[in-house]
Amino acid sequence: MSLFGRTGKGAPFDWLVVGLGNPGPKYIGTRHNVGEDVVKLLAERHREQLKGGRDNALTAETRFGAPGNDDRVVLSFPITYMNESGQAVGAQVRRYRIPSVDRIIVIHDELDLDPGVLRVKEGGGLAGHNGLRSITAHTKSQDYLRIRIGVGKPPSGAGKNYVLSKVPNSEREQLDIAVVDAADAVELIISDGVDAAMRRYNVKQ
């Protein structure tokens, strides 16, 4: 049975926005946690705070848009560690009765893009990203929307320590700008659709 479009208690939410990363203070500000940075910024913009609770995620419920013409949005940061992010996403799809897989927006780090480069993507492959792999396993689909924030390829031999290490000041400014752009891209997807966001952000930078 599909996770999507289920009936249940309460009104369904329109969107689930997921920022990927690892939980705990030592991971704050790392390349792997740029998705967390984006959902935190969106919560601040909408005067909400991510709070713990059920579903192995920090969550804020909010609305995007003008009153009477707004969308109900769940902001989520899974706290299962990156490799098990899909546990939280699957549970929240059910709890909030998300209508379809293309109403999930996942923000994540991307090794194949230069630091600070932003791309919006509709479905597609996993590019070796364990967070995306877990979400795909739990939703049974790769058709969710992605906002990819470039962190660049690691130096030879750096491996996973690269994405889990603190970002040098020379790169931090680029990522901070990308985080703001990614938050803007989420809002544009919800207000005007993914095609509008791709036209704006999928250009050479």
Characterization of this structure:
- The protein is an alpha/beta fold and about 200 residues long.
- It has a single domain (about 15-200), classed as 3-Layer(aba) Sandwich (Rossmann fold), CATH 3.40.50.1470.
- It contains six helices and six strands, in the order E-H-E-E-H-E-E-H-E-H-H-H.
- A hairpin with a 2-residue loop joins strand 2 and strand 3.
- The chain starts with 14 loop residues before the first strand and ends with a helix.
Unreliable residue stretches: none
Q: CATH-wise, what's the superfamily?
A: Peptidyl-tRNA hydrolase
Structural class: alpha/beta
Question: Globular, elongated, flat, extended or rod-shaped: what is the shape?
Answer: globular
| Strand order, sheet with most strands | 2-3-1-4-6-5
CATH architecture: 3-Layer(aba) Sandwich
In quaternary terms, these chains amount to single chain
Count of individual beta strands: 6
Task: Please work out how many helical segments DSSP would assign.
Answer: 6
What is the CA-CA span between the terminal residues? 42 Å
Return the domain count. Answer: 1
Order of helices and strands: EHEEHEEHEHHH
Strands, helices and their partners?
Elements: E1 15-19, H1 34-45, E2 57-66, E3 69-78, H2 85-96, E4 104-110, E5 118-122, H3 130-139, E6 145-150, H4 161-164, H5 169-192, H6 194-201
Parallel strand pairs: 1-3, 1-4, 4-6
Antiparallel strand pairs: 2-3, 5-6
Helix pairs in contact: 1-5, 2-3, 5-6
